[in-house]
User: Which sequence fits this backbone?
């Protein structure tokens, strides 16, 4: 068996390994689940127009949960993927701890897969083999001629192969997923004036890497920031256009604070069961969870073997109900909805405004001043029950004036209710969507995106802090 | 790295390092984590369940591996692996990565001089949490849960989180360091839905409780007393009026002030942020190199320091991951900016770019969170020195119109740390020098410099507490770090409060 994660034999290797663990647990008379996560990651990081870090890592993680009646214990480890005895010790550790756990008040459902599922729809062998020289060539092309002594390049090109697999003692079947992804963030910033602009791209196959679109955005934004005046906006209400990154941030929190059944049970949801079937958001707002959306790195079956289906969370503003995981079903008597997955496949569906980029939008005639916010920094949940969140603009806001001119607003803070934002404030959505990366920033590589329109228009949105400079 | 018979001896690690320097690397180091263990026990409404994932309430995670860092042509290369069979290849990959990076260098990296040390650091712990039988831990949790299970409490969550890390460090300059660090972060939270319909909560995350931070801090009497306080305060919150939207003095207790300092002094003064190394994700800083020695960061009552010598704190770790011994450095001296959180790399670059010697050697703050992450500037203990404005009661008595805020609930900060918005769990109004009733959903916001320049009272040593941060996020790839803050009660005037 090859040791290469990229080998076509890898699924067989993982199956054999997990099956050995399964048989070991059965021999010891214990029910258990096993999850495998392996990544072969590469990250090239830029700062101050240099490569500040060039790193690779090849890490495999094993997660084990032992269950007995109403007790459970989880163990996990970074492992040598070829050291089965060490993995058996991790299983044994969970088994040894299990009798010491106290019983919970309800019974847990054991995952029982009824068939093998191998999913490699998001695996691109071409992207899996991209090397450092090709990454640096991409970045050079995307930023050619844009740097100066004052304007410096920062950013990350993060790519890798991720392999996940699940099995339990309940059946000899495996749920296997393997995919490739690349997340690119390139930033140009002025040392002297402290402004910063960016362009991003999130793909799963090499053919979708598009340095030209990054170049076009950076070049256009750079031109604005070199030639337009900076301005401190007065506090008050504005017509706002949000870019793809800001929309995805709000869309993520909308799902987290409204669709998550666990948040509802914890009392932190902005919606309740009384809201199901009601018009709670604008008719322009339809959000779906759809395993057919390849850009979101979907899995066709969840951890319990349930085949996943497209489901609207908000259907033209009507709340259709909470997403329920198996653990909520067990604890609260709810019905699971097939969403026991590492990453949801969320999409805020596009609207009808025929505009693809901020460059296009800025060139259109307009009947009012418009504040363009491409990105939100450090969003905080001020009051989850009210869906109240706060965040600051970043990476190249523009003030598109009614007379056709453009100014450069210093960053502003928005503190608003998601119910209002996607309700009374929502005015239009672009007819075109792009994925925005939402993979875990701090843990293991698990690619995911939220699919959102490239632009969205909102009316009468208050800003409450306006910076005095860049 | 479970197959320990394949783990190199110290001399073998050094031989691998020598091979890299023979291959052209100007510097190389390796960190080997022989053990990186974390354990978590959660009790939610009496069940051993993680309240946020629904998964098992008992979880234990172990990691082992090594990370190799080297300089070639003025650029870093890094590689990491958990596979003991890949050690030679991983060293080679680190050098290859550095050679690739050397193709694009704008300021060749030079490391500031350091004293080459051999040493050992062991964090203070009287009773290792990993040695405490699970039954004993669960019995403690059940006893505490019974205290919390009272009228008004809809959700109860108690969490015990512990880590134990053993690290060996070797570098091409001859340093050889061993560390064993045990961290223990217990907490408890009660939640309830108020008459307004909002979910309210109170949380207790203990400050430093003694000379060590193992299981010995789980004194039942102490925790039961704190639990009763949380329940009492939660029930006050459930019927409290909303925090007024107003401009007032804000008296910030240490269990909230630590986060204020963390976000708007600590992160703002990380030298890698100031130099632009975090611009693509975590952000920059409003501070410029020319500000050191000149900028009035706050009122003259403000003296802040990065002190990695504070006893018994996660921000004290003996030696950083450059092999530099723990430092105690002034950051802000009676209001004036004088220092930064720094490493061997960034002080050299900052001094060169400033054209003057701002920094005298590394501040000893370069740390990585795991074997597979490269070291970056991280806070140590970012502290505010105690002041001369008396205790909390003295400060309240000296306040005409204010609120007292406690317990972090949400935080959002501008990317250059120039402004902020914080929500807290609870607040009390202050009118005419007296503490009045509780208000719910308190928040406050401001511009960083204006805010610290309005610092009008700093509590004395009796108000000074060391608070721990278990989850400071930064970097790409992302890193979570543990650190501390020694903080007194502070009062700021003319602050915008309310949602």
Assistant:
């Amino acid at each position: 068996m090859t040791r290469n994660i990229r080998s076509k034999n890898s699924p067989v290797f993982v199956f054999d390994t997990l099956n050995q663990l399964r048989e070991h647990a059965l021999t010891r008379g214990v029910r258990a689940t096993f999850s495998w996560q392996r990544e072969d990651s590469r990250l090239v990081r830029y700062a101050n127009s240099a490569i500040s870090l060039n790193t690779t890592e090849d890490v495999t993680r094993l997660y084990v949960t032992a269950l007995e009646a109403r007790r459970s214990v989880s163990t996990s480890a970074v492992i040598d993927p070829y050291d089965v005895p060490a993995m058996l010790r991790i299983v044994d550790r969970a088994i040894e701890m299990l009798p010491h756990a106290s019983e919970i008040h309800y019974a847990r459902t054991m995952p029982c897969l009824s068939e093998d599922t191998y999913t490699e729809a998001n695996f691109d062998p071409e992207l899996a083999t991209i090397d450092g020289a090709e990454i640096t060539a991409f970045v050079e092309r995307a930023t050619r001629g844009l740097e100066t002594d004052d304007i410096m390049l920062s950013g990350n090109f993060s790519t890798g192969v991720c392999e996940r697999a699940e099995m339990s003692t309940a059946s000899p079947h495996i749920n296997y997923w393997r995919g490739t992804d690349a997340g690119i963030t390139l930033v140009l910033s002025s040392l002297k004036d402290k402004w910063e602009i960016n362009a991003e791209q999130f793909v799963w196959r090499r053919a979708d890497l598009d340095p030209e679109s990054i170049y076009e955005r950076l070049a256009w934004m750079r031109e604005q920031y070199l030639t337009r005046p900076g301005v401190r906006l007065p506090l008050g209400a504005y017509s706002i256009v949000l870019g793809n990154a800001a929309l995805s941030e709000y869309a993520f929190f909308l799902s987290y604070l409204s669709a998550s059944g666990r948040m509802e049970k914890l009392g932190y949801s902005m919606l309740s069961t009384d809201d199901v079937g009601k018009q709670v958001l604008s008719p322009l707002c339809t959000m779906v969870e759809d395993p057919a959306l390849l850009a979101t790195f979907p899995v066709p079956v969840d951890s319990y073997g349930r085949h996943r289906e497209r489901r609207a969370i908000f259907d033209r503003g009507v709340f259709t109900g909470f997403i329920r995981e198996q653990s909520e079903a067990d604890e609260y008597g709810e019905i699971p909805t097939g969403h026991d997955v590492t990453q949801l496949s969320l999409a805020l569906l596009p609207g009808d405004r025929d505009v693809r980029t901020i460059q296009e939008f800025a060139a259109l005639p307009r009947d009012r001043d418009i504040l363009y916010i491409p990105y939100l920094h450090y969003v905080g949940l001020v009051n989850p029950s009210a869906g109240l969140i706060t965040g600051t603009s970043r990476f190249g806001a523009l003030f598109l004036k009614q007379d056709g001119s453009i100014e450069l607003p210093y960053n502003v803070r928005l503190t608003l209710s998601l119910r209002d934002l996607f309700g009374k404030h929502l005015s239009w959505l672009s007819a075109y969507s792009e994925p925005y990366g939402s993979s875990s920033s701090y843990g293991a590589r698990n690619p995911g995106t939220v699919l959102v329109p490239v632009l969205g228009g909102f009316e009468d949105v208050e800003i409450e802090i306006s910076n005095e400079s860049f | 790295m479970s197959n320990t018979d394949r783990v190199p001896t110290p001399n073998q690690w050094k031989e691998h390092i020598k091979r890299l320097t023979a291959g052209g690397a100007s510097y190389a180091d390796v960190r080997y984590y022989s053990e990186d263990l974390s354990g978590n026990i959660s009790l939610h409404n009496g069940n051993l369940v993680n309240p946020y994932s629904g998964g098992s309430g008992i979880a234990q995670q172990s990691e082992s591996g090594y990370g190799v860092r080297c300089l070639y042509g003025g650029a870093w290369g890094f590689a990491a692996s958990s596979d003991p069979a890949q050690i030679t290849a991983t060293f080679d990959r680190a050098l290859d990565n550095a050679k690739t990076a050397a193709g694009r260098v704008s300021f060749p990296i030079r490391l500031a001089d350091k004293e080459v040390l051999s040493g050992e650091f062991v964090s203070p712990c009287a009773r290792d949490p990993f040695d405490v039988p699970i039954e004993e831990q669960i019995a403690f949790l059940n006893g505490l849960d019974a205290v919390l299970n009272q009228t008004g409490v809809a959700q109860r969550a108690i969490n015990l989180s512990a880590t134990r890390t053993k690290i060996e460090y070797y570098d091409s300059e001859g340093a050889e360091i061993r560390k064993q660090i045990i961290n223990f972060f217990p907490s408890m939270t009660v939640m309830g839905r108020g008459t307004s319909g909002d979910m309210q909560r109170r949380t207790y995350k203990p400050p430093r409780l003694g000379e060590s931070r193992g299981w010995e801090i789980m004194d039942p009497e102490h925790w039961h007393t704190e639990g009763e306080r949380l329940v009492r305060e939660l029930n006050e919150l459930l019927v409290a009026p909303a925090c007024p939207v107003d401009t007032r003095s804000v008296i910030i207790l240490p269990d909230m002030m630590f986060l204020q300092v963390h976000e708007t002094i600590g992160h703002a003064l990380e030298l890698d942020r100031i130099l632009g190394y975090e611009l693509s994700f975590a952000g920059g800083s409003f501070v410029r190199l020319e500000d050191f020695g000149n900028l009035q960061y706050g009122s003259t009552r403000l003296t802040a320091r990065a002190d990695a010598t504070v006893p018994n704190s996660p921000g004290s770790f003996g030696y950083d991951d450059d092999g530099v011994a723990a430092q105690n450095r002034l950051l802000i001296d009676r209001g004036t900016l004088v220092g930064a959180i720094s490493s061997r790399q960034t002080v050299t670059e900052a001094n060169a770019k400033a054209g003057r010697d701002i920094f005298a050697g590394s501040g000893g703050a370069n740390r990585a969170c795991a074997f597979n992450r490269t070291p970056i500037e991280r806070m140590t203990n970012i502290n505010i020195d105690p002041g001369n404005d008396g205790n909390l009661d003295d400060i309240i008595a000296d306040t005409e119109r204010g609120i007292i805020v406690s317990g972090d609930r949400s935080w959002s900060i501008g990317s250059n740390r120039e402004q902020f918005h914080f929500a807290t769990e609870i607040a009390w109004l202050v009118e005419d020098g007296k503490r009045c009733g509780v208000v719910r959903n308190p928040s406050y916001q401001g511009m960083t410099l204006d805010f610290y320049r309005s610092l009008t009272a700093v509590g004395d040593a009796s108000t000074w507490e060391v608070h721990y941060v278990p989850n400071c996020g930064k970097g790409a790839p992302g890193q979570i770090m543990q650190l501390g803050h020694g903080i007194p009660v502070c009062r700021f005037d003319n602050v915008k409060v309310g949602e």
Q: What stands out?
A: Residues 220-238 of chain B form the longest helix (19 residues).
